[in-house]
Every structure is written in C-alpha cells, then in structure tokens.
Design goal:
0% strand; 76% helix; 3 helices; 67 residues; mainly alpha
Length: 67
C-alpha cells in the first residue's frame, strides 16, 4: 500500500499547475497515481493465459511490497 501512496504522491507533484488548490489538487494527483497503478494491473491481465497473468500480478505485488 505504501508504494501506491508513493506513486500517488509523485503524480501529484508532477502534475501541471491546475486551477484547483489545496485538497482538490491533492485528490486529483492521488487519482492520477491510482489510475497509473491500475493501468499496471491492466497490463498484467492482458496476458494470454492465467498462469502468465498470475505470474505478472505476483511480480507486480513484489515490486510494490519491497518497502
């Protein structure tokens, strides 16, 4: 979970300046980070068979679970 929050935080600081300020700006950045994490899961699910899907998901979880 910490890795997802870190990606969300990084996405927040990388975003272009918006008209939203404060909490609205933070939640927008968090949303973008969360969507980026979900796109990584989507890539795992595009594998042709279940064994490959599970292996890719396991690898992804391992990457997020290092900290």
């Amino acid at each position: 979970m910490e890795k997802i929050e870190e990606k969300a935080r990084l996405a927040y600081w990388r975003q272009k300046p918006r008209k939203a300020y404060g909490l609205g700006s933070f939640t927008e950045g968090y949303k973008e980070g969360f969507i980026a994490a979900l796109s990584e899961v989507r890539e795992c699910l595009k594998r042709p068979n279940n064994k490959e899907k599970l292996e890719m998901i396991e690898k992804l979880i391992g990457e997020y679970d290092k900290d």
